[in-house]
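Please decode residue identities from the backbone states below.
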């Protein structure tokens, strides 16, 4: 079975991510598709195992095998967690619906560290742009602000919200370069400080519910094995 056949025939969930899911789309925005496929269990009984992820077959499309996706989500990977909360679901089956019903099991205060670490990496790239070119890539600055807002609100409320809502116009002004870099820096620093403050009394649990996720994965793999399709 080719990687493309895995995605075409075994996807349990797919959604739109990027600017369109964030409520920040403009006329030239791409449509980024992210998906999760369940490789049939009998494929794991061979020497060559199914791929953990597949790029394509469409442009701007990327998919993960279910187990790999769950591993990354349990580590509070920001990009992975947000896939489970996209407001734009393209495809979902019964396994995908069960996964979405479990999405709270992946959330924990570990998100504070992982979101902050990801944000720090992005901030270093922006600072390098400023040093080399005198200005950041404003689109990247906008998306970093969005991520920091998402992290702060997740820690405050225990709910991960992808769409920026009323912050849309402020963020698009950053993308257009209408907000000075010192103002953006100040905004970022304030959001980071608010996230740090929220982490101390967040309603989120200290760690994700790994046992619930493991049970879901076991039952899903077992059902696939009993079905016997490869």
């Amino acid at each position: 079975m080719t990687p493309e056949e895995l995605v075409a025939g075994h996807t349990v969930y797919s959604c739109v991510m990027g600017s369109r899911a964030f409520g920040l789309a403009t006329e030239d925005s791409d449509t980024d598709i992210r998906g999760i496929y369940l490789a049939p269990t009998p494929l794991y009984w061979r020497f060559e195992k199914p791929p953990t992820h597949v790029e394509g077959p469409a442009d701007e499309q990327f998919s993960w095998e279910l187990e790999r996706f769950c591993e990354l989500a349990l580590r509070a990977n920001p990009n992975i967690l947000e896939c489970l909360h996209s407001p734009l679901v393209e495809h979902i089956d019964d396994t995908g619906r069960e996964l979405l019903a479990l999405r709270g099991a992946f959330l924990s205060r570990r998100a504070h560290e992982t979101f902050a670490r990801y944000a720090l990496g992005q901030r270093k790239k922006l600072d390098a742009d400023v040093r080399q070119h005198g200005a950041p890539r404003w689109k990247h600055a906008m998306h970093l602000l969005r991520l920091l807002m998402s992290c702060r609100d997740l820690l405050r409320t225990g709910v991960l919200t992808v769409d920026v809502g009323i912050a849309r116009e402020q963020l698009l002004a950053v993308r257009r370069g209408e907000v000075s870099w010192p103002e953006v820096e100040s905004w970022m620093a304030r959001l980071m400080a608010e996230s740090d403050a929220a982490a101390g009394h967040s309603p989120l649990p200290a760690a994700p519910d790994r046992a619930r996720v493991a049970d879901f994965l076991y039952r899903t793999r077992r059902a696939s094995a009993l079905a016997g399709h490869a």
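Observation: The radius of gyration is 19 Å.
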